[in-house]
Amino acid sequence: MPPFIEHLTMLGFGAELIYSFVIIICSLMIYFGTKELYELSSYKGIKYFRLSFLFFAVAYFFRSFIKFVLDYFSLREIHEFSPMFFGNLTLFAFMYFSSLAIFFLLYSVMWKKWGENSSRIYLFHLSAFVISLAVILLRNSWIYLGINLILFVAVLSTVYISRKDAKKKTKGHNLYIIYLLLSFFWILNIIDILIPEFLQTIQFFIYLTSEFIFLMILYKVLKKAGSD
Amino acid sequence: MAKRGKLDITYDILKTIQKSNNLIKPTPLLRKSNTSTARFKEYLAELTAKNFVEKTNHKGENFISLTNKGFKFLEKYSTIVNFIDEFEL
Fold first, then answer.
1. Which of A28, A96, A137, A212 is the most buried (most CB within 10 A)?
2. Is the CB of A164 inside 8 Å of chain B's CB atoms?
3. B76 touches chain A (CB under 8 A)
C-alpha cells in the first residue's frame, strides 16, 4: 500500500472527532432547519424525519464526542474510573440511538402505509434496545455482522417495497438511493466500531463517504425548507 | 379528484378566511370549506387551539379571522408541500 494511503487509513482520535462533529452539526442543522415546517404543519412524516436526525446527532455524540466533552470540562476521571464500563455505556448508547435513527427514517417514509400506531414506536425502541444489549453482551464478531446484515436486508426490502408501490413516480428516486447509502454506511460505521480490524484499511473512505451523504441530505433539506 | 389531506383542508379553510378580507362568519366558512359540519367543527377547534385563527366579535356577531401564525402557515404552505414531496414523507 502506498505510504500516503497507509497514512490516511491510520486515523487517530482527532480525525474521528472531526468526523463525529461534522455528522452531529449536519444532523442538528437538519433537525432545527425543519422546526418551523413541523410547528406549522404538525405533519407526522416531518416529525419522524426530524427525530431520525436528532437520534443520529445523539448517537454520534456518544460515538466519540463525549470523550472530548469530558476532557474539555476536565471530567476525565469519569472515563478513567472504569474505562470498560464507560466504553460499554457509550457503545450501548451509540447502538441504541443509531438504530432508532434508521427505524425512524424508514418510518418517516412508510408511516402512511404502515399506519399510525404507537405500539410500532414502542417496537422500534424495544428492537433498538435488544440490538444494543446483544452487542454489549454477546461480544461475537459474527453475531455483530449477522445483526447488521439482517438490519440492512430489512432496510433494503422496505425501500424496495416502497419503490415498487410508487414506481409511477419518477421523483424521489435519488432519495431512496441516498437512504440506502445512508443505511449501508451506517452499518459499515458500526462494523468499524465493533470489529475495527475488519475495515481498517478503508476507514478513511467510510468517514468521507458518510460525511458526504449527510452533507448531501443537509443540502437538500436547506434548499427545500429554506425556500419561500 | 384526489382525496384532500388534513394539510390541504387546513390550507383551504385558512385561504378562504384570507380571501374574505380576513373576517368571515362561521356559516359561510363552513359552506366554502367543502367539509361536513362535524369535521368543520373539529378543524375549527384545532385551528383555534393551535392559534391559527381567532374568534372575534364584531357588532354583536361572531367572526373568524387569521392570526399571524395563520398567515405564516399560508406563506409557508408551498414550502411544506414541496418538502413533503421531495422527501416522500
1. A96
2. no
3. yes
